[in-house]
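Hello,

Following up on my earlier ticket. Below are the two sequence lines again, exactly as submitted.
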Amino acid sequence: MSPNSLTGGRPLPHAPRTDFDFIAEKIAPGSRVLDVGCGDGELLARLVKERGVDGRGMELSQEGVNASVTRGLSVIQGDADTDLRDYPKDAFDYVILSQTIQATHNPSIVLQELARIGQHIIVSFPNFGHWRVRLKLLLQGRMPETPSLGFQWYDTPNIHLCTLRDFTELCDTLGLHIDDALAVNGTRAKRIGKPGPLDNLTASEAVFMMSRTS
Amino acid sequence: MITTEKPEIAAAAAEAGERVNARSCTETFGADEPLRLDSEVELSPFTISFQTYGRLNADKSNVVLVCHALTGDQFAASPHPVTGKPGWWSNMVGPGRPIDTDRYFVICPNVIGGCMGTTGPRDINQETGKPYGLTFPGVTIADMVRAQAMLLDRLGIDDIFCAIGGSMGGMQVLQWCAAYPDRVFSAIPIATAARHSAQNIAFHEVGRQAIMADPEWRQGSYLEHGTNPAKGLAVARMAAHITYLSETALHRKFGRNLQDRDEITYGFDADFQIESYLRYQGSTFVDRFDANSYLYITRAMDYFDLAQDHGGILANAFRGTTTRFCVMSFTSDWLFPTSDSKQVVHALNAVAANVSFVEIDTDKGHDAFLLDEPEMLDTLSGFLESAAQRRGLTT
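Thanks for your patience. The regenerated structure is below:
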């Protein structure tokens, strides 16, 4: 199994990463960053190089961990569902969870843990409200398989898919303020601040940046 | 005056020590610099025997401390003076190796209580004129590390760029990070634990009982009696050696294959290859190791419990640490399983330490850290390179 499949459908490394551009831009230079589900460390390496961050990673697949450590990153093998609780409160300025939340067992608890250990949270995930997903289910009557969701229903690691609206509502419930968001549609990306109904239809993926309101 | 039944045996042992030290560097600490042991005994005088590889740079920032395991010694990357075999970590330490001696200055000391030149139970107690034997004070992992710190002080070295070791060597690395956090820039504890498990204490006890059951052991004073508990020590080694391997590796290497025969003999010769192999391991071990040292050093490992030393919370051992850690374990190691390493990682995360954790997929068991495991060597090279850049060590 490739690290890609284990991180829950993270796009292939050669794909353009507009979400990475957005994240890199958001992160203050020299800050403390934890990338949960860091894969082979591509984003983390970029943040260390371009933003001079004190970067740490957590990754489920041992291949991903070993590849990350070999490239000089500080990465541990760990599971977002169970291992975030080891970290102390406010251990990081930013905690990133890219393309992983939909593969966790308890997204709500994971988000609360992220908010506990980080000042700012950055979460990216595939949007199940995208028009292509809705259309496939409506017209074909089958679980949608799209470029962002490239699995059959029986072998997908994505067990907790949601739409932009679902995610926004969960953030409200958990007392998380959405500071900014990026709607990604294929290779195009758009800053949307806070997502509206149209974004929920047109974005195939989204990146949210949040902070605690209390 | 040494009073022994066969003084030439003790003399030969002393001479063997001198022969080893002729091939090693030594530093002796006199009455004014005793080693204050955890047992509150002061060991004095004492000598540390060590090997160095590579060159110390001008600002003394390229020191790698290699800590050896239970039956290891200072000959990490040079031929062993007794067996003539290559250094036990020749694949890790040397020019162009992950611990590149063209770049780093490697120090590998023999532990206190050892039998390769550093003061241990085989050496003469200055007060009695006899070999220490069981009058040697009990030592701990912390004592070993304290002695190493005194050695570095003597050599004028403040900081270690990297402390690295496997098994008991890894315990020393963890102890270094807990006791001298400001002196360790990076640390690589491999196939180790922050405390010795009940199962591991049990295996050690089997080994010790084998030694002590050997009539030649003479209550530990075999040097004075001119005897050698070689059989007991060999059995201890045989039992321990099984724990260093994995069932899969044993099966792959030996299976149920017979040794130099086509049929079983209905006797107790080494019918099976695995028996022959273990007997060989036992018999060669006694040529290079002292039985009492084996007792003392296994005891030091048994006593190791870093959490207990810090109020029962392992994370407290590392609070405020700025050391960069790379913890490593092996999938088939059942002596120091991955769960042991993960406890260390959890504790380090709890203090938001800079930690990497790598588990290497191998069927070679605990011994894997001594073997040519490409993934181990590659990841450690990557970790060390990154740490070297942070430390400002350029090639």
